């Protein structure tokens, strides 16, 4: 396999740094650190360029906070300067990692995404009788730094670039030598690439009938329960022995005609329904905007925009009947219904 020649000079190119700055600032214009960076961005970018080239660029400065969506997660958001660095890195490294992925990997890729993964899974449900589903236990926290760097070394040859990626990876630990921070652009790309070998193992060694992966959620299909079970055992061994990961128990094996829960939907060969989690998100979103309107925090235009966001959560599923039931169960206030 021919390795990429991307180096630190490519990252530190003025055009690349300027594009990275614009992408990192997108939607963050009110942030104080973005405002301060913008006020003298040429000097900041010049300093960042110098630090990249001499290998002294600072990494690991992150803001830590908690979210509950729906389960508890600890998010590590890099400071703005480091976000610019990450975008500059991924402008060149990202396309190289993308080329290593199989077509049916859908997370963090242009032209892919969760809905495309759901529709592809629905196609496979129509063609195959049985499916197996697996996801990794504590995936981001379990990624082994040494294994990840070995995988990156197979794709890139510039030692300065590899040293920079190594410093970024080693700047966070969930346990000794393991873990990527949830919330960083580099983490998303590295985590998506980390399972590329497992993808090819299922497709080329196990010869599964169909396959879809969205980050660490994998689904494959076969003609019989036994064939799917054999693949499940093989995938579990590969994940443990080659990647240091554990697939959650118990085994998830089912008939395609009975539907599959995946990426926020309950997928059937002929229907697409909302998962309980996505239903809860719709209800919470609607309640949040109605509460804000009733208490005068937003105006009617903001409320309508909020309703559009809530509707977007359900729009791709067969959810019209369920939404009507929600309105009957929890009708709109007179002040809102009059809009």
Explained architecture:
It is a single chain. This protein has 339 residues and is α+β, with helices and mostly antiparallel strands. It is built from 16 helices and nine strands. A four-stranded antiparallel β-sheet has the order 4-5-3-6, with helices on both faces. Strands 7-8-9 form a three-stranded antiparallel β-sheet. A two-stranded antiparallel sheet has the order 1-2. A hairpin with a 4-residue loop joins strand 8 and strand 9. The longest helix has 20 residues. The N and C termini lie far apart (62 Å). The mean pLDDT is 93.
Protein traits:
339 residues; alpha+beta; 3-stranded antiparallel beta sheet; 9 strands
Task: Tally the helices.
Answer: 16
H and E order: HHHHEEHHEHHHHHEEHEEEEHHHH
Mean of residue pLDDT? 93
Low-confidence stretches: none
Strand content: 5-15%
What form results from the Cα inertia axes? flat
Q: Share of helix among residues?
A: 40-55%
Distance between the termini: 62 Å
Gyration radius from CA atoms, angstroms: 23 Å
- Biggest sheet, open or closed, and with what strands and sense? 4 strands, antiparallel
Q: Structural class of the secondary elements?
A: alpha+beta
Q: Biggest sheet: strands side by side, in what order?
A: 4-5-3-6
Quantity of strands, as a count: 9
């Amino acid at each position: 396999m021919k390795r990429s020649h991307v180096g630190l000079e490519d990252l530190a190119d003025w055009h690349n740094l300027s594009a990275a700055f614009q992408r990192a600032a997108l939607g963050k214009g009110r942030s104080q650190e973005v405002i301060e960076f913008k006020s003298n961005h040429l000097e900041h970018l010049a300093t960042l360029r110098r630090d990249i080239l001499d290998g002294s660029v600072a990494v690991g400065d992150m803001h830590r906070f908690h979210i509950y969506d729906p389960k508890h997660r600890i998010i590590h958001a890099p400071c703005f300067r480091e976000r610019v660095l990450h975008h500059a890195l991924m402008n060149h490294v990202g396309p190289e990692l993308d080329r290593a992925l199989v077509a049916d990997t859908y997370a963090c890729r242009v032209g892919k995404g969760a809905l495309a993964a759901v529709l592809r899974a629905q196609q496979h449900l129509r063609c195959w009788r049985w499916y197996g589903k697996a996801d990794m236990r504590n995936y981001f926290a379990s990624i082994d730094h040494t294994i990840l760097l070995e995988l990156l070394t197979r794709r890139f040859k510039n030692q300065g670039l590899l040293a920079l990626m190594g410093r970024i990876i080693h700047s966070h630990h969930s346990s000794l030598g393991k873990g990527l921070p949830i919330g960083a652009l580099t983490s998303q790309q590295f985590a998506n690439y980390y399972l590329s070998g497992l993808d090819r193992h299922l497709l080329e060694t196990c010869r599964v009938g169909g396959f879809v992966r969205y980050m660490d959620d994998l689904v494959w299909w076969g003609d019989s329960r036994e064939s799917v079970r054999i693949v499940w055992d093989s995938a579990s061994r590969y994940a443990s022995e080659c990647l240091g990961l554990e697939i959650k128990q118990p085994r998830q094996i089912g008939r395609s005609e009975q539907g599959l829960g995946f990426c926020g939907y309950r997928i059937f060969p002929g229907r697409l329904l909302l998962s309980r989690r996505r239903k809860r998100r719709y209800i919470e979103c609607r309640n949040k905007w109605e509460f804000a309107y009733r208490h005068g925090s937003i105006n009617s235009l903001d409320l309508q925009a909020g309703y559009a966001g809530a509707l977007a959560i359900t729009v791709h599923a067969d959810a019209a009947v369920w939404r009507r039931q929600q309105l009957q169960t929890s009708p709109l206030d007179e002040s809102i219904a009059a809009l």
